[in-house]
Write a structure and sequence with these properties.
The protein is an alpha/beta fold. The protein has 12 helices and 18 strands. It folds into 2 domains: 198 residues, Medium-chain alcohol dehydrogenases, catalytic domain (Quinone Oxidoreductase, Chain A, domain 1, Alpha-Beta Complex); 144 residues, 3-Layer(aba) Sandwich (Rossmann fold), CATH 3.40.50.720. The strands form 3 sheets. Strands 3, 5, 6, 9, 10, 17 and 18 form a 7-stranded mixed β-sheet that branches. A 6-stranded parallel β-sheet has the order 13-12-11-14-15-16, sandwiched between helices. The protein has a 5-stranded antiparallel β-sheet with strand order 4-1-2-7-8, with no helix packed on it.
Length: 372
């Protein structure tokens, strides 16, 4: 079938629209008519050549839409079902089998090879293959081939242009606090960087009942939104140069007692920021590195900063099981407890390049393309 897709022809080029041929869904695959798709910084990184997907390529990995067809063996969804698309996983490795599908041992191939598991793409143009299957969906297109494991069925009453970003950025932020830090009432946390991941983490911390929720950013407007979404304190790091000391003061800790925060989620991956932030943790606190740094980036910490029990860890997709966690977040949204719509700016599909520009400039927190 012929579809319309936004294609990156070469690294660092802007998206161009093209008619593309898409094959029928195969075994274990699902054909989705895409209604909406969020834009994530991972899409921008892939466009820039930071990941192994070959060019030309169809990107997009926060899609939502309606199932059109299913391939052989698919039982989780049927034609007509609304779905959110998310990260792919094999379902067979040790990590998948023990509840950590976002750490699937086949994750790199599943999500960034540009092909199906057989090494071939289902997308072509002028009889030449185009890389697709990005995060098992390539949803910057009118139709997408996903896998049964990368779709999450949602209710018929769910607004797909609101919940589309749950597939990556929003479940990453909220999950980092709820699933990875295992936040509980009374805990004290901080979030550095208030983009869509950071703001989702703040909403997650509020859901979990954290007593202190510190938001750190350089944009006053983002900090104001963070307050609205649940932050109890804000720090403008463009004005406050002693950020770690300020976090210690807010949390009631000091350097001699080892700090006061239970957990910090950093979404910037800036070495100096991380090196400073760890000192605001108490002696068994956790620093989560949630930002996507460029390949080759290094972190540096004083040995003493981690010697007394502090943990530094990465986090992928909020350590979530998407089939469980995404419906839970939707329930919270419908109850008015997780207002993700306050993060969203809408764009027509044809305005994808403007939407990305607005995301990079900070004008838009979470751009969402309305596609179908």
């Amino acid at each position: 079938m012929q579809i319309r897709a936004a294609v990156v022809e070469q690294a660092d080029e802007r998206f161009v629209f093209s008619d593309v041929e898409l094959e029928e869904p195969g075994i274990g695959e699902v054909l989705v008519r895409v209604k909406a798709c969020g834009i994530c910084h991972t899409d921008v990184g892939a466009r820039g050549g930071n990941y192994p997907i070959p060019f030309p390529a169809i990107l997009g990995h926060e899609g939502a839409g309606i199932v059109e067809k299913v391939g052989a063996g698919v039982s989780k969804v049927a034609p007509g079902d609304p779905v959110v698309m998310t990260v792919g996983s094999c379902g067979k490795c040790r990590h998948c089998q023990t509840g950590f599908p976002t750490y699937c041992r086949q994750a790199l191939f599943e999500n960034m090879s540009g092909t199906r598991p057989n090494g071939k793409s289902s997308y072509s143009r002028n009889n030449k293959p185009i890389s697709g299957h990005f995060f098992c969906q390539s949803s910057f297109a009118t139709y997408s081939i996903a896998t049964e494991r990368s779709v999450v069925k949602v209710g018929q009453d769910v607004p797909l242009d609101v919940v589309a970003p749950l597939g990556c950025g929003i479940q990453t932020g909220a999950g980092a606090v709820i699933n990875t830090l295992r936040a509980k009432p009374g805990m004290q946390v901080a979030v550095i960087g208030t983009g869509s991941v950071g703001l989702s983490a703040i909403m997650g911390a509020k859901l979990a009942g954290c007593s202190t929720i510190i938001a750190v950013d350089i944009q006053a407007s983002r900090l104001e939104l963070a307050r609205e979404l649940g932050a109890t304190h804000t720090i403008n790091s463009a004005e406050e140069k002693q950020v770690s000391a300020r976090m210690l003061e807010i949390s009631g800790g000091d350097l001699l007692s080892g700090g006061g925060l239970d957990g910090i989620l950093d979404t910037t991956s800036i070495k100096a920021v991380l090196s400073d932030a760890i000192t605001a943790l108490h002696l068994r606190g956790t620093l989560l590195v949630g930002g996507a740094a460029k390949p080759g980036a290094k972190l540096e910490f004083e040995t003493g900063d981690i010697h007394y029990g502090r943990t530094v860890a990465g986090v992928l997709e909020g350590d979530s099981i998407p089939d469980i966690f995404i419906p839970q977040l939707i329930e919270h949204y419908q109850a008015g407890e997780f207002p993700i719509d306050k993060l969203i700016s809408y764009y027509d599909f044809q305005d994808i390049n403007r939407a990305i520009d607005d995301a990079l400039s900070g004008k838009a927190v979470k751009p969402v393309l309305r596609i179908g």
